[in-house]
Amino acid sequence: MLGSALLAAPVSGNPKVARAGKLSLAVSGPRPAFEQALPYLQMLGKSVTYVGEGEAARLVKICHNLVLGVVTQILAETTVLAERGGIARADYLEFINGSVMGSIFSRYKTPAFVNLDFTPTFTGHLLRKDFELGLDAARQFNVPLPVAAITHQVVVSLIGQGLGDIDFAALLELEARGANLTLKPEHRDVSDGLKPEDGTTGEA
C-alpha cells in the first residue's frame, strides 16, 4: 500500500526448522515499523533481532550464509578425517554435537552426514550465489575474507563435480572424493535436534 513502511526480514532456517519453531529473523527498516510488527514477527520463530535501517538485514543474511558454508566445510573435512582413522561418522558427530562446538545446525545436518541423504534443503548453487554476494560485499567494504574465499572455491568445485543440485551437505562427498574414500550410509537412527517448542514431535 502506498505510504506503508517496509521491513526486510530474512530468516535463518528452512521449512523443517520453521515447523520446529526455531526460525531466527534479522529485521531492518524503520524502527517504529519494527516495533509495530514485532509481536507478529515473534510468532514466526524463536528469535527476532533488529539490525538497523534500510537493507542491513540483507547483509546479515549474507554473512550468515558465509558462516553456513564455512562451518559445513570444516565439518566435512573433520568427519572424513575421523572416518579415515576408523571412527564412525555417527560417533564423531555425536561427540561434536554434545561438545561446546555443537549447535542446532551441526545437529540438524548430522542425519545427512551419517546416512548420506542429500535431499536438498539448500543447494550448492544457492550457496555459491550467496558466497559471491558476500565476497562482493567484502570488496565494497574493503574487508578481507580469506577463509570464505577458500570455501567459495570449494563450493565451485562441488558444482563442477556435479553435486550442485543436491543439498550442500554434499561437501562431505566432495571431501571424501578428495581423500579417495568411498562413503556408505551408516543406517543409524540419529536425531536432527529439531523439536517444536511445545515439545511435541515434529515432522521428520
Describe this protein's structure:
It is a single chain. This protein has about 200 residues and is mainly α. The chain has two domains: about 10-55, no CATH class; about 60-180, Orthogonal Bundle (N-(1-d-carboxylethyl)-l-norvaline Dehydrogenase, domain 2). The protein has eight helices and three strands, in the order βαβαβαααααα. The protein has helices at about 15-20, 30-40, 55-85, 90-100, 105-115, 125-140, 145-160, 170-180; strands at about 10, 25-30, 45-50. A three-stranded mixed sheet has the order 1-2-3. Strand 2, helix 2 and strand 3 (about 45-50) form a beta-alpha-beta unit. Helix 3 packs across helix 6, helix 3 crosses helix 7 (about 145-160) and helix 3 crosses helix 8. The longest helix has 29 residues, at about 55-85. The radius of gyration is 19 Å and the shape is globular. About 30% of the residues are buried. Mean pLDDT is about 90; it is low at about 195-204.
Concise account of the structure shown:
Helix content is 53%, strand content 6%. It is mainly alpha-helical. The longest helix has 29 residues, at 56-84.
* End-to-end C-alpha gap: 39 Å
Number of strands: 3
Give the SSE order as H and E letters. Answer: EHEHEHHHHHH
Could you tell me the strand content as a percent range? Answer: 5-15%
Structural class by sheet pairing and helices:
mainly alpha
In CATH, the topology of the largest domain is named N-(1-d-carboxylethyl)-l-norvaline Dehydrogenase, domain 2
Low-confidence sequence ranges:
197-204
